[in-house]
Amino acid sequence: MESSTQAPVSSPWAPLKSSLRPLLDSIYPHQRRPTGLLTPTPMTLQKPQQAAYPGLAKDASGAISQKSAQENSQSSESSQSTKDDMELGNGWTWTSQKEKIILSPYDYIASEPGKEFRTLLLNAFNAWLQVPQESLDIITKVVRMLHTSSLLIDDIQDNSMLRRGRPVAHNIFGVAQTINAGNYVYFLALKELQKLSNPAEAMDIYTTEMLYLHRGQGMDLYWRDTLTCPTEDDYLEMVSNKTGGLFRLAVKLMQSQSPTNFDCLPLAELLGQAFQIADDYKNLANLDYTQKKGLCEDLTEGKFSFPVIHSIRSNPENQELLHILAQRPTDVDTKKYAVRYIESTGSLEYTKELVAILIAKAKEEADAIDAGSDKSKGIHMLLAKLDLK
User: Region (Disordered) spans which residues (predicted)?
Assistant: First the structure.
């Protein structure tokens, strides 16, 4: 545990108040239902018009004549068995073959299933929210799309080598194509939301939480790239934005489609923080992560994870861990040395205690929402998965 004695103000890594205080009793900044909604803009598909650049063919005399747009369309249909619903204004058609090409990096990572924690989370919340199945399917699809596409971008930003036990997508398809695929799926997800009964509200929720997500990611990258150790409170705020953003997006969308009035956002906040900090711990201490992402990959990325932040601030005079992060170590011995140092400052144990507190508060919040209706079993099962004991 951190000492209660404050380090001198002159120290660049002066420890602030411990996170092991009553947590998250402040006002949640994210309201249940957004305001200032946009007016929905209906999407209509235009039938193909005559091509702006019609095909050219020679008649029997050798003179050049124009093919009709219909003839061009029929020719195209004979060579493409399946087409997307988007007809381009110049008569060209976006085909499933082209779609498959640009989605290859996304399909590559999606083909190797993850833990599906977020899908299980949606089903657990739906025990209370009772979202119609058609709407729930759309929301589940959108959340999966956003999560998977964000992994493509994260792996590039973190210079990762493994994802789910396989080479990262950008080492297979290249950085440029992988970035394009990740960004493209963000917009496909937005298009999916237009199928909901409240497209304007859904788009407002999407925009708000995607902004939070990118703000959190931006601060995480800034600390890493400038070797700036944040405070524990700064880190918790970042996690609320980065990891909590997708959790809140899912719950807000569900609440907007729900016939009930349950407010599950505080619980989603707690789950997001517990999930990320437990992940920080496992990255340094869990053999399963070594096999799927590499040994202590957070150290190789130079990431200020929660145990690292606590360790640095526990002994501001010793800057060994900072120097190790600056080197972005790849060798096993250096990373094992760093983990031993983190253990020596009590930071792994401290992280376990914080996760336990977050889980306990989440259980209390779930039971308060449930109010004896016996519908919180799914949430309790997910919380058990986060337990580090």
Answer: 30-90
